Amino acid sequence: MPELPEVEVIARGLDATLAGRTVVDAEVPGLTRLSEPAETLVPKVVGRTVVRVYRRAKVLLVGMDDGSTLVFHLKMTGRVVHGARRAAGRHDRILFGLDDGSQLVFSDMRKFGYVRSFTPEELAAWDFLKRAGPEPLETVPGELARRIRGRRSAVKALLLNQSVVAGIGNIYADESLFRAGLHPETRGDRIGRAKAVELFTHLQDVLRLAISENGSSISDYVNAHGDAGAFQNSFNVYGKKGGKCVRCGGTLRAVKVAGRTSTFCPKCQRKQ
After folding, report:
1. What would the pLDDT profile of 192-233 be if each residue is shown by its tens digit?
2. Residue 1, pLDDT score
């Protein structure tokens, strides 16, 4: 599933090329079951001009000139790509034609993602965004540290909890915990303030580095123009169970935390 860096990269790419463009038509091969029905979605979007594209948590938001917001949640395999007009492909869910002859395409192989249009009032009342925690790149590490300290849940589970901190998934949780030397099963109430601040300082560093490298492409992710990311080449632990630790040379292991596989070094990340 695309995480904060991937969605941020897509948002920045789309904002650079979509702002000022007007939607002139839409082709709907088959929306996902969680998407807004085409009969209500299309009339809201066609004729509208894009004002800006931005991100909140793991969600892509396209602000329109009438105050409405077109929302894409990519879930596991969703893609939003802006490029030249083409025929609809097998996994395309909706294709928006633009006034300069280009096309914005939402595709999703597994059909878990969705697209919807919200009025300002609907967006403000949307539970998904109301429950989202603070943005990790817009919040000082000390404040983020306060949100996990004293909690009995495993720190990995806390990082994945979108109400604690927004936009973090398996990749960036594992990589940040490794840098901070924290075992993924260590409880929040066993982490001192200095170590918690260190964790979120590393998390911010990892997120910024991933954004600078166009995100991580494991299987389906591509940016707004169809290009793959490169941060997967910089992973220290994620997906490397059985490999060697880059610090100590020990063997990386994996455990399940909050239902997710968590890879770590048992020597460098001792459980507290």
Report:
1. 999 999 999 999 999 999 999 878 766 667 767 777 677 888
2. 73
Of the residues 55, 58, 93, 179, which is catalytic? 58
Choosing from 3, 8, 36, 198, the catalytic residue is 3
Angle between helix 193-212 and 4-18 (nearest 10): 40
pLDDT at residue 219, rounded to an integer? 62
pLDDT above 80: residue 132: yes
Q: Is 2 a catalytic residue?
A: yes
Q: What is 141-264's CATH number, 3.90.226.10, 1.10.150.20, 3.20.20.370, 1.10.8.50?
A: 1.10.8.50
- Amino acid (one-letter) located at 105: V
Nearest to residue 118, comparing CAs of 2, 35, 211, 210?
35
Strand pairing class (260-264; 253-257): antiparallel
Q: Six-digit token pair at 269?
A: 């990340």
In the chain, where the domains are located: 4-131, 141-264
3-state secondary structure of 5: helix
3 as an active site residue: the answer is: yes
> Is 58 a known active-site residue?
yes
Its CATH class, for the domain covering 4-131, is alpha beta
Non-local (6+) Cβ contacts of 70 within 8 A are: 45, 61, 62, 64, 115, 116, 117
Q: Which of 247, 260, 267, 271 is catalytic?
A: 260
Going by DSSP bridges, is the β-strand pair 78-84/69-73 parallel, antiparallel, or unpaired?
Answer: unpaired
